[in-house]
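Below is a filled-in request sheet from our internal design queue. Each sheet records the structural input a requester submitted and the sequence that came back. We keep these sheets so that new team members can see what a complete request looks like end to end.

REQUESTER: design group, bay 2
PRIORITY: normal
MODE: inverse folding
CHAIN LENGTH: 480
BACKBONE (tokenized):
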């Protein structure tokens, strides 16, 4: 794989000659050197995408051919599945079991799912109450779409955005997180191999300034961003000023509600997976555990015991259950929140410090569980994005929905109960884009995904993503 950017079908360095390094977070070692794009590079990529959008090879591609193209991309991802999974593990740090069993298969499934939509993007013929007129509508692509992806699941989230953007006929400029650019560059290379016309898929690499140039570009019709709420607000303001389309999948602080009738032993593994998947670097991570006060101490002790026995290590090492955080900056962020939690009076059950010994050279942090957490504490209110779990006792089950909703976020929630009525009443009352009942955090290409409140605007996946990358055109015809 060339450590270069893709602009107009050509692999290139940055115009200013700048580069930056990407690291293996498990060792701190440099993996590769990547171009640091300039605003001029962004201009070139957008111009290429704009030309490609209206080129006959792309704009006039028949639906069946577009479906075959997306299916071919999926086949190539599958053909290179192990390579991509290893690349994702080395660049991001997630255990190989996650990259090979979740990230890569999910990316494949998204391209195949949206390949099926290529021949089904129909409009409607509607009877209007005007005599002598025929009315119909259809969906059209938006144009150049800027796809800005995060560092926690780089390949998978790139697929969430790229597949629906392509199937609806848009062209794209992708900007991966500077911490994890490699799998996105490899995905772009596979798109070229599949036969995507030059300029339809472009990738520019670099830091926040590159993303800012893409967001502000007047020829970018839509921005799709996954990342922090703070950055999402700035993107929303900028796209709002120039009336561009925007989709935002932002932060979360998912509550895990353990109903009084729940079997704690039976739900422990699901809660551990939901809270510590990818070392807690998941926007929908279960981080606030509401447990009946009579069993809160038991729950905290048991989940702390499971967490403390998880095997930390390099994601490519057999048996690794928990990999590193993505960067030194993220280690410092997590540790700062742990110190705040202790200072505010939360009881530290396990963890609470950086891993040492053989792991000292990487960005490892021990899985951490706090008990006796109050709703007002910082660790219960702010997104940490690391392996920190807070157990919050409750006495009145009737207050659970209100307490779970007492947050700026509304991305996801989970409910654990053996009473289907209780579970569904809570699910209906909780303000979140997704609510799981007795499940770890599963996702599927057919199920819309996104948040309420400060967790975002719009949805990805399913038919909702088709709507996000198209607009409706009405056609009126006189029959006189």
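RETURNED SEQUENCE:
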């Amino acid at each position: 794989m060339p450590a270069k950017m893709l602009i107009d079908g050509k692999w290139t360095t940055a115009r200013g000659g700048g580069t930056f390094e990407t690291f293996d977070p498990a060792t701190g070692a440099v993996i590769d050197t990547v171009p640091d794009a300039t605003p001029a590079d962004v201009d070139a990529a957008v111009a290429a995408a704009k030309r490609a959008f209206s080129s006959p090879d792309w704009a006039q591609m028949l639906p069946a051919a577009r479906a075959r193209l997306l299916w071919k991309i999926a086949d190539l991802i599958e053909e290179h599945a192990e390579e991509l999974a290893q690349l994702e593990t080395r660049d991001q740090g997630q255990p190989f079991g996650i990259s090979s069993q979740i990230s890569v298969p999910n990316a494949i499934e998204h391209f195949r799912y949206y390949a099926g939509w290529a021949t089904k993007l129909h409009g409607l013929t509607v009877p209007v109450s005007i005599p002598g007129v025929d009315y119909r509508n259809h969906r059209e692509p938006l144009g150049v779409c800027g796809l800005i992806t995060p560092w926690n699941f780089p390949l998978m989230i790139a697929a969430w955005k790229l597949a629906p953007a392509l199937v609806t006929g848009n062209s794209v400029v992708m900007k991966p997180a500077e911490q994890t650019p490699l799998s996105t560059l490899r995905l772009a290379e596979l798109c070229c191999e599949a036969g995507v016309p030059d300029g339809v898929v472009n990738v520019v690499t670099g830091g926040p300034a590159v993303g800012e140039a893409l967001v502000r570009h007047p020829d970018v019709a839509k921005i799709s961003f996954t990342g922090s709420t703070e950055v999402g607000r700035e993107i929303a303001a900028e796209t709002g000023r120039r009336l561009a389309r925007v989709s935002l999948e932002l932060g979360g602080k998912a509550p895990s509600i353990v109903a009084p009738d729940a079997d704690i032993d039976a739900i422990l593994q699901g809660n551990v997976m939901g809270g510590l998947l990818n070392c807690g670097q998941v926007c929908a991570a279960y981080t606030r555990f509401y447990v009946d006060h009579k069993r809160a101490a038991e729950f905290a002790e048991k989940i702390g015991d499971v967490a403390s026995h998880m095997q930390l290590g390099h994601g490519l090492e057999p048996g690794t259950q928990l990999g590193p955080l993505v960067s030194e900056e993220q280690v410092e962020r997590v540790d700062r929140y742990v110190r705040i939690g202790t200072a505010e009076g939360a009881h530290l059950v396990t963890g609470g410090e950086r891993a040492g010994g053989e792991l000292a050279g990487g960005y490892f942090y021990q899985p951490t569980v706090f008990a006796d957490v109050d709703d007002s504490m910082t660790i219960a209110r702010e997104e940490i994005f690391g392996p920190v779990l807070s157990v919050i006792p409750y006495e009145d089950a009737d207050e659970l929905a209100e307490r779970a909703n007492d947050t700026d976020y509304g991305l996801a929630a989970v409910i654990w109960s053996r009473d289907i009525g209780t579970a569904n009443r809570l699910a209906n009352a909780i303000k979140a884009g997704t609510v799981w009942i007795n499940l770890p955090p599963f996702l599927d290409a057919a199920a819309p995904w996104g948040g309420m409140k400060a967790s975002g605007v719009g949805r990805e996946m399913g038919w909702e993503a088709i709507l996000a990358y198209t607009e409706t055109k009405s056609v009126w015809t006189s029959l006189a």
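SHEET NOTES:
- The chain has a mean pLDDT of 97.
- The chain is about 40% helix and 20% strand.
FILED BY: M.R.
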